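Bench notes, bay 3.
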Amino acid sequence: MANSIRENGSLSRSVSGREMISMPHTLEIIWRNVMVYIYLHLTALYGFYLCFTSATLTATLIWALFLHVFGGFGIAGGVHKLWSHRSYNASLPLRILIAVAQTIAHQDDIYKWSREHRVHHKFSDTDADPYNSRRGFFFCHIGWLMCEKHPEFYRMQKTIDVSDLLQDPVVVFQRKYYYPLAVILCFVMPAVVPWYFWEESLPTAFFVASMFRYVFTLHATWLTNSAGHSWGKRPYDKQINLSDSLLAASFSLGEWHNYHHVFPWDYKVAELGSSRTSFHVVVIDFFAWLDLVYDRKTVRQRIVRSRVLRTGDGSHPYALKDCPFNSGDIKDHSVDDDEI
């Protein structure tokens, strides 16, 4: 990424051979969204309080946790790995199940989420990036959802190819009926199930399993945008503003951001055989065992090592002189994409 100052005082950047012009921009707050997020957090706080009182049944807490993990997989393992990056393929029944999980998490439909995420990867931390971390921690965590997007985002969004998404009938169907599906799967169903099956109070079920669970899942996802751009090491590329944050990885159940932006096609979002392999990878591998997942993509160990030594910040074991993998005696046990 190269920078230059234009005659009019604006900053010009070249990203992937395309000129990015950082023009003066007035932040336009969407007050409707602000009020919605205030309401969501107030109800979530009350739900969080109910979790520690006798008013909430243990079964309801387990149900809320299940929905969080299930919905989290719909985001990290589904719309992120499957649809945004095409790091693996899945059968129609599994794509339907993942779409249900992603709708339960309610973070926009698959098409819109994937399109914005592809823009984020191609133009990370520029004005075109919808959650540009250079605009501050709060902005890239939640603030970007409370204001109009930068004009540069809309300009560069047109350069992103998303035609593959509309070839998937699951994506098309979900996009067409997304809002009624989201209301039912994210808010109604999580509250009705505890009320109907184990006689939980309907208000308690709503505030705990619907609202608190939903907002908690939102923040778990947002931490990748904020903490994953602010704190942590950069073992694979020190020149990008993306880091392997333990905080973000913990809440996302194993998503390592610096690695991911260097090797975005790797479905594991971590090194092959790494002890940091995510929960979502375990689930994907399980479905592969059931022949519902195929064409999983990952990166050869020698390619990872080469990138670490060339652009890493020195924190990776490969950068240590006494690392056994720096010896020619160690065989590369990575596999090709078509061998997975």
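Next record in the batch:
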Amino acid sequence: MFPTERDTPALSVLARAVSVLDAFSPDDTAVTVSELGRRTGLAKSTVHRLAVELCRLGLLEQTPRGLRLGLHLFELGQLVPRQRDLREAALPLMEDLREVTRSTVHLAVRDGVEVVYIEILGSKAYPGLPSRVGGRMPAHATGVGKAILAFSPPEVPAERIKSGLAPCSPFTVVAPGALLRELENVRRTGIAYDREESGVGTVCVAAPVLDTGGLAIAALSATGRSTQLDIERMGPAVRTAALALGRQLAAKGRGPGGTRPVPRTGSA
């Protein structure tokens, strides 16, 4: 749903510019200034001024049919340390996991109460799955999300519940008590499941990638069609890959929360 409010003094220029960038959807090839105004709730003149500057900076591009996101955004995205470091360490393990499970393999991280997919290795056996790199999903409706929520500080699942457990399919867990019981089971087994909760016909099994403090940095999953993928059987392989990735990150000196510890003064 796009906001309907018009320009207000409370919005900074930066916030307005970000709202314009956020207004683009994965299906857009080009969007007119008028449509961006409708989606953002900003005046058309404001959107035009922002678009001119964003184009100058390479964050937007002008086409005969309208505006589209600029290549400089992609370049900046590749510099995000969490995405780059995780992706580089995870790719060999993801490739092995795809080979073993014959499924689509996802790597996701938490952003607020949602998960963002930072790498996806597709499988020929399951073409057309709706997930995409950079895509977001509510954490309670996905296997990777539940794996991360289960191994996050208590305030994180509490905030997810407070934000509302909106259904993504008829099978999404929307009762707070049921979600908390499921997260407790994930903590016990180290494995989370999505049984058509993110979308009808799609299932996955996921496991958390833990830091040295036992908190989730990310999660890996194996995903496929409900009629073809035996998620119960795939669980140990996904869990093994996630544990291996956590150990690799720890060996590279990543401390709790996925950050590098600060060396002590005078240490070797």
